[in-house]
Amino acid sequence: MMARQLTFHNEFLKFVQRKAHSVYNFEKAVVLKAFEHLYQLELIKPMEGLSVRTQKEYRLMKLLLDNSQILEALQKYPNCPTDVRQWAMSSLS
């Protein structure tokens, strides 16, 4: 089975269409800036063994947080959008 490599922005759009009850209307540049910020904070990193020549928005990424860290972040951020909170909780189970 081939792994689909979609851009971070496309993944965000799929999340919004599938899960979001509220309207998230962010331009592509804003979404990509948020992605860059996650990378700079070292919360994500490119998967090893993939071509360095691949455009960064097409690289497969790995989340560097474990489940307990995500749960802790959700507890510390009570204003987290409900859609994001539900997505995180469903991903952890």
* Total number of distinct structural domains: 1
Question: Which structural class best describes the helix and strand composition?
Answer: mainly alpha
The main sheet comes to:
2 strands, antiparallel
The tally of helices reads 4
End-to-end Cα distance, whole Å, is 24 Å
Across the major sheet, the strand order is 1-2
What is the succession of H and E elements?
HHEEHH
What are the segments in which pLDDT stays under 50 over at least 5 consecutive residues? 1-6
Percent of sequence in beta strands: 5-15%
- The count of β-strands is 2
**Rg on CA atoms, Å:** 14 Å
Q: How much is the average pLDDT?
A: 76
User: Judging from the principal axes of the Cα atoms, what is the shape?
Assistant: globular
The residue fraction in helices comes out at 40-55%
